[in-house]
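User: For documentation purposes, I need each entry recorded in a consistent format: the amino acid sequence on its own, followed directly by the corresponding structure tokens. There are two entries in this batch. Please keep commentary to a minimum and don't merge the entries.

Assistant: Recorded as requested. Entry 1:
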Amino acid sequence: MEKILVVEDEKGIRDTLQDILELAGYEVLLAANGKIGYNLILEDQPDLVLCDVNMPELGGFELLEAVNQSLKDKVIPPFLFLTAKVDKEDVLYGMSLGADDYLLKPFSASHILKTVRLRLDKRQHLLELTSTNKAEVVINEIDKLALPSDDGLELIPFDKMIKCQADRSYCNFYLIDNRKILVSKPMKEFEEILTSKGFLKVHKSTIVNIKHIEKIIRGKAGHLLMSDGSIVNVSARKKEELIHLFNSNA
């Protein structure tokens, strides 16, 4: 039976979520604040966390940040945040910590169950990739990297990779054919390989293929326009290095 932790300081909402989830066949753990929730995550290892954003003791964002620090590269349960309002800055901040989704209050039982099921299925898929070691890194003589796809390991040429971005203990490879391949290994597993093949780490969460940089967008913060039209953040330290690199190749 899959285990879901509900972290919510309002008892009425907490009880309602418990009823919805238990009727759907889930085991439910309850926490009235983030501190209790933190201990339950470490001790009981739930499969998913439904968490209020604003709570006394320890808020939702602080809870996720604490869990990230404690579990580091381990598989962290999906976090679904509950909130009465959507603030763009809060959403972006939560996503930067690894939030998987936001659910607005008041919520419907059907929407809660649909979102929970979707995130649990995704987590199971990632765990299966890890256990079968399908994300084994392989480099052959024709400069390709073996990455997992729906059909098993697929050899991807390095020049067809636009960027690699971290997602907790996983990473996403973005390809020139608009595909994205999710790999159940942290980005650091690929960093040495990629940087030896013409890639550059421009942010703690992003490595880009230098050949696919269209231009540097200057400003208070550094950004890159990539060949697929995406915008990539650049750390302050790497911004000057990139400007120097482009000026020397001009």
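Entry 2:
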Amino acid sequence: MCNKGKKLVFDTLSGKKTDRTPWVPYTGIQIGSLNGISAEKVLKNADVLYDCLMTAHKSYNPDGMPVVFDLQIEAEILGCELMWAEKAPPSVKSHPLELNKEMELILPQKTDGRIPLILDVIQRMKQSVGDTTALYGLICGPLTLASHLRGMSIFMDMFEDPEYVQKLIDFSADVFKQVSDFYIEAGVDIIGSVDPIVSQISPEMFTQFLSKPYKEIFRYTKAKNTYNSFFVCGDATKNLEEMCKTKPDCISIDENIDIVEAKKLTDRYNVVISGNIPLTTVMLLGNQKDNMKFAIDLIDKLGNKNFILAPGCDMPYDVPQENIVGISQVVHDLESTRHFIEHYHSEKVDIKVDMPDYANLDKPFIEVFTIDSATCAACGYMVLAATEQKNEFGDKIDVIERKIDNLENIGRLQNIGLQNLPAMVINGEPRFVSIIPTKKDLAKVIDDCLSK
């Protein structure tokens, strides 16, 4: 029993059928809420991070858990200025290669940035719970790190300077391997590449820029007898097969992807799939029984082979503790929990909101629907694309971000008919869904609207 949870995760990643579905809550900044501590303090202080992780471990009874979920660790070391928040991971504020493409970049060392803090906490977690719990070391994926360094220009570079983009992605892959060495040596069991921007490119671009680096990354970690996982956010359905071809042990997805259909594909490649309890509509805004019901439904549909139950991504800070505890209860006592909620039906909420009069707008109105631009890299770059146009066009256009962390914006999303995020809606019409537009493409759409 001492290593039951960890063994469940390992057996699943090895392609074995298990007694029950393993459970890996993505305990990012949400753990700060358990001790009443801000996200910034959690991510900057080793003692605080360790204490919050241990509180979460006791509460959520996980089979596996990440030590830290922050995609800006490597970017900060490489020169990106960060913007910190009370209830969200930091976001990238500046991009060192935005104006100077050829600036020299140096691989991170063990003593750089917050790496010593993270290594310390990995070692402490390994000693405390490492026999029972699989520890994940999460690292910013090559495309997302490249976008942090270069900024929005990288999307135009893919067309105008592909050799430069490949060079930058290859460097970012080397950063990944370097940091993975540090984490593996400290004691993590699974290395995860978290690359949300993958959902924003085409399969052709994935093949061109990322197939080779990712094959090398996963070969590299496996050669060190370490499992790996490929995390993606947003609607990456179009890229799932190309991702499978890079041969990761696992692909972790969010609610933008139909996990039942996706598993049919990942099973063909013998790749484990992990996910995808919705972060906002279920975990944040639902009650405990909503979360229990969703988890039971997922387990019933996907079974206990090649599947790890998890949130869609890093859990928002304000997700109620009892909702996560409820999911844990499902995993550890499925039939009793099933009996407990057998007559429960989620309440259908009729969300009434005042929609803009799109037919009679004075000027183009850009609405960017996001999970949260502060926590979702793809969402952040979608908002940045719109903000750059606001800077160019000034008062000729209006721009707003609509985060789906409240029922009003969920109602707006439903009225427009959006199924996937992030998405850019212009004058009430979805124009860019799970694809970050280039500056040129978005400017053309705005010019067309202004000319009407």
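Summary note for entry 2:
The CA atoms of residues 42 and 49 lie 5 Å apart.
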